[in-house]
Amino acid sequence: MASLVLMHTSLLFLSTLFICVHLSDQFQPFQYNALKQIQQFLNYPSVLTIFDSTWDFCNVEPSPFLTIVCYEDNVTQLHITGNNGVFPPSLPQNFSIDALFSSISSLSNLKVLSLVSLGLWGPLPATIGKLSSMEILNLSSNYIDGFIPLELSYLNNLQTLVLDHNKFTGQIPQWVSSFNDLAVLSLKNNSIFGSLPSSISSSENLRVLAIADNHLFGEIPGLQNLTNLQILDLKNNYFGPNFPVLHHKVVTVDIRNNSFKSSVPNELNSYFQLEKLDISINGLIGPFPPSLFSLPSINYIDISGNKLTGKLFQNMSCNAHLVFINLSSNLLTGELPACLQEKVEEGAVSYDGNCLSGEEGNQKPLSFCHNEALAVEVSPQKLRHKERKAMAVLVSSLVGGIVGLAVIVGLSLWVFQRRNRRAAMKGPSTRLITEKLSTVNTVKLLSDARYISETMKMGANLPTYRAFALEELKEATNNFSHPSIVGEPSLIQIYRGKLGDGTAIVIRSIKMRKKHSPTMFTQHIGMISRLRHNHLVSCIGHCFECCPDDSTVGIVYFVFESLPNGTLRSSICGGGETLNWAQRITAGIGVAKGIQFLHTGIMPGVFSNHLKITDVLLDPNFHVKICTYNLPLLAHQNAGFMV
């Protein structure tokens, strides 16, 4: 009897084993083929080739390059990272992102997909919508472009979406809020434009909202109902003018380098979990609440580059865990608190550009801060009253203007025709040529949304690029007099000057070896006008000096913004104001961002910039800007170079 029971037990065990082996054979070859195809499409990682001899891919040892996680013989997690994220692997010449995601979509039980630093390029395929079990999607540090596809909204279980450091364009779709469990939305460093959708206010489970380094603008929807939001990263956009409304549980607020112009809300004093606050490089006005120094969790505060007012006192209290405080370039008065003075020697505190008494460094007179504070304290009611009054004046002016419009038009046509007849005898003027070329450039720029978005983001703080009349430049340089010359390379002369509105400029005059018509320069002028970035010395206009006989261009003038604080080298090696360690780190990051923009921010990129430390200048706030691009100007015709 015992032997019979043992035999039945053995048969049952063998039957179970057969069933398990059968199911494994049914499931695993299908997934094995998908993984092999992924390896072939990427030509990476090589560890996947071991599946030629074994199908036990669920037990592959995790590495920094590849991690596969299985549950009940199904692949549920796939992590592939290129060379520790430093350099992407070399994709095959016939790489197809559509074919890659077609293979990935066959892993229907996939919950986590991470493809980082692999050099993937092309629009994100619609097949991504087939991964209905997906909870975490990370495609950061690639070259994926195009709009964020609608098919992503089919992933109803999505909790984390990370698309950082790609080339996505278009707007943030309204359907982002349709993910009930979405906790992390990170779209940093793309080319996304437009406003933040109002639907984001209903994403109650959102913990991280990181959309820095894009081309976004407009008001921030009310986020006070997002009680789980911990990290808000909006830096390097155009949001504003009103300060975001947040829940008091937020941990990190980074709105650096935007267009916020309102006052700092008093509610910040109740953000007891706040650890990092960066509101620098905006236009914020009104009193700065010094009680922020003593918030129980705070360790990082940067309010530099605003117009914040207020008086500081030595006996103010500070959180002992503060590691970085930057109060520079505001309108603060009084004395630096003693609790911050202890950290000055550590390089953790910056406070230049205020009106603090008894402090070394670049402090302005007390009257400056008072006068500036009065200048910005214009109430909204007065502004609205002025707007209504201006509107009334405008309406009355229009009524009067319409009556004489016909007469003015007739006289203008008569004068214009007479002037044209004279111009035909004397040859076309420089102003008419440059204005015509500027119009052509504008039409060309408007035809390319990528260039528009780059120009909007990178050139917002600069004057509008335009064509200058030669007379303007002569007036700015006292007729290009010798004292205004600051450099004289072989074919290029460099002048310093000042426009009629007081703007300091640098003019680079290039004598052309060959004569060309103005239309020959259209493409090159278009390229130069798009080189606008926070870390590039930007060109703000051009002018042609034409030959009187044939109207061809003999000299090209490029007008650049002027930076008064010398080179980065002089501020590091002596000769100028010495930068502290934090400023040097910031300078290095700024140079890297400027180079990145030259390489990837415009199409085609500019790669011929043999950068030297003397080619990096400092603006009034000691932010670095690259002044040399080595952009060829009609180089293929030996016409010269723009330096």
Summarize the SSE layout with pairings.
Blueprint: H1 2-42, E1 66-71, E2 74-81, H2 97-104, E3 112-116, E4 121-123, E5 136-138, E6 143-146, E7 160-162, E8 167-168, E9 184-186, E10 193-194, E11 208-210, E12 215-218, E13 231-233, E14 238-239, E15 252-254, E16 276-278, E17 285-287, E18 300-302, E19 307-312, E20 324-326, E21 331-334, H3 338-344, E22 349-350, E23 355-356, H4 366-376, H5 380-403, H6 405-426, H7 430-446, H8 449-458, E24 466-467, H9 470-476, E25 485-487, E26 492-498, E27 504-516, H10 522-529, E28 539-546, E29 553-561, H11 568-573, H12 581-601, E30 616-618, E31 624-626, E32 631-632, E33 641-642
Parallel strand pairs: 2-3, 3-5, 4-6, 5-7, 6-8, 7-9, 9-11, 10-12, 11-13, 12-14, 13-15, 15-16, 16-18, 17-19, 18-20, 19-21, 20-22, 21-23, 24-28
Antiparallel strand pairs: 1-2, 25-26, 26-27, 27-29, 28-29, 30-31, 32-33
Helix pairs in contact: 1-2, 7-10
**Radius of gyration based on Cα positions:** 31 Å
**Named CATH architecture of the domain at 428-642:** 2-Layer Sandwich
Query: Helical stretch count?
Result: 12
How many beta-strand elements? 33
Distance between the termini: 99 Å
Shape: globular
Q: What is the assembly state of the chains in this entry? A: single chain
Q: Quick check: average pLDDT?
A: 77
Going by CATH, the homologous superfamily of the domain at 428-642 would be: Phosphorylase Kinase, domain 1
- The unreliable regions are 1-27, 378-416, 419-460, 634-643
- Overall structural class, as computed from helix and strand content, comes to alpha/beta
Binned strand content: 15-25%
Q: What is the CATH C level class of the domain at 428-642, in words?
A: Alpha Beta
Strand order of the largest sheet: 1-2-3-5-7-9-11-13-15-16-18-20-22
Main sheet specs: 13 strands, mixed
Helix content: 25-40%
CATH topology of the domain at 428-642: Phosphorylase Kinase, domain 1
